[in-house]
Amino acid sequence: MVSAEKRQLEFADRLRQFRASSGFGTGKDFAEHIGWQASKVSRIENGRTLPSDADVADWLRALKVSEPETASMRDELREIRLARDRWRQQLRRGHADRQRQEAAAEQLATRLVSVEFFVIPGLAQAADYARHLFSMAAQLHETPADTEAAVAERIRRQAVLYDSTKTVEILIGESALRYPICPPPVMRAQVDRLLGLLDLQHVRLGIIPLDTELPTITMHGYLIVDDEVIVEINHTEIRISEPDDIELYERITADLWRIAAEGDDARALLRRIGRA
Question: Could you tell me the domains of the chain?
Fold first, then answer.
């Protein structure tokens, strides 16, 4: 099987060939034509940066590449991204490195929206809850079990919850607390953690009760980081940047907030769950 890294280099070479065959002798010439920085063209052509779908569409449109060839290149890009983002690939050095990458992205973001129905989102996890999840994930994906280091990095990530310059929304299905993937003492501590988050001024926390009719449907949880949606599924991660797709997730989120318990209602619901 060809590695994701090799496919990215081959993809970059095809983009370079399209550019060269269209009469642009250098990447600098093409950068001026398309209105980009020459360094961006260089990074893409040398395989150091995997371009976005929009970048590839603009690149090939500027070169007047045919629609069938453009569609083929965009399909290949999606396959490369899925291969690159497979959990085994991302976690080959363990979970701690991945947590550091997420922390860096979240520190740069101005808006974070997390929606989950089956697990507590990372930004809201208590340490023992995170410890159980990292241990289970390492076994599932057969990757290095750097559990303690990963937990420490996840807790450091949560500093963004106290940053008044950011907008943070966390929306959790009650089902995430009713399915006990950890022992009861750990789940109770997790409920206490959520109760504490309700007091944070810059965090909007909502719980979607199990007995409430849903106004919309979502097949999975997701994270919105500014103008990108990140979806984690069992074998890989999907990153979405198309405006129409992002707008869909924003509508789903708005609909779910309409039925979420917040403030005192969320506090009462969490206390009932904790007692149960």
Answer: 4-84 (1.10.260.40), 94-275 (3.30.870)
